[in-house]
Amino acid sequence: MKITSYTVKNYQFTLVMAIMAAVIGVVTMLTMPRSEDAEMHPPTFLITAVYPGTNSKDMEELVVKPIEKKLYDLDDVDKLVSTVQDGQSVTRIDFKYSTDWEIKYQDVIREINGLRSGLPADIYKLEINKVDPSQVTILQIALASENASYKTLRDQADQLKKTLEKVPALKNVEYSGFPEQIVRIDLQLDKLARLKIPLNTVVGTIQGEAVNTPGGSININTRSFDVKTSGKYANVEDIAGTVVYNANGKIILLKDIADVRFNYEEEKYITRVNGHRCVLICATLKAGTNIAGTQRQFLPAIAGFETKLPANIRLIRVFDQADNVAHRLNDLGKDFLIAIVLVLITLLPLGFRPSLIVMVAIPLSLA
User: Fold this and answer.
1) How does DSSP classify residue 311?
2) Sheet holding 125-130, edge to edge
3) Is the alpha carbon torsion for 94, 100, 101, 106 positive or negative?
4) Residue 299 and which of 95, 140, 146, 190 are 20 to 30 A apart at CA?
5) Which residues pair with 48 in a beta bridge?
């Protein structure tokens, strides 16, 4: 009550403090990072192991127990939990929150890398991931089309990826939702048999031609020249024109014994938006940035890209976290204004100026 009485009697001081608090609040609101997910770095890490064809018991004995033993020897371990199933395991390690998460991340990487030689050699995947709430998708865009080829969709997605990567506040811009393009080589075994060409010779030749080998350098007096050799194929015609065998002076090309063409790998998933076939482009937000300001940067870039799209491809902004943040902040502002009006109404019998001073004094006294 004494603090409240003091603020009412010395209203000039109260108004100055209120204006200072309001200015600090406005500046903070305009400059502070905004996103749905808090920027925090918990010292928690996930070690995922994939070992196809292994049952859960063998997975535990061959993979999980060695990993747990190695990690448990680290300092400041708070919790170590593993989930095991057929062909896969996930080990979660939590360190004490007072520790430096970056140092602990390096410790985990060092221990797991040192353990790799002691694990089964045919493990398909062994990776370490940070638990980071800020590493979530804040923007997802779909390029939808029912008749465009996967190559066309991929090329357009790649162009959009490059466009978004120019926005300073965005990171981890990736696209997905289509099978990767491959070169399919169908060997004609009857021709191989007739020409007496070993299959291993053909395979080895193709693999060897695709390898880049440094050629060294040539020194002439005081000048040095680098020798560059390149086995990188530029197109399907280069692959088809590979010399695979030399029989009695007759050169056999790959196209003489095989059908070489572009194809796609087996589709592992189906991507749809509003029932239409599409590819997805996703991006995350860099730390310490304002999502509203970031939206003002990438929206013109997306609009400019959309004008260059073919007529049979539509751009759909599937998810934009900035819209959600703006909507919630608007609701918060409305609720705050309603609260101020209600307090003013209840204090009006005291008179306008005293009620205004009391209204300002209450939050200051509570602070």
Assistant:
1) T
2) 77-85, 88-95, 44-50, 125-130
3) negative
4) 146
5) 90, 127
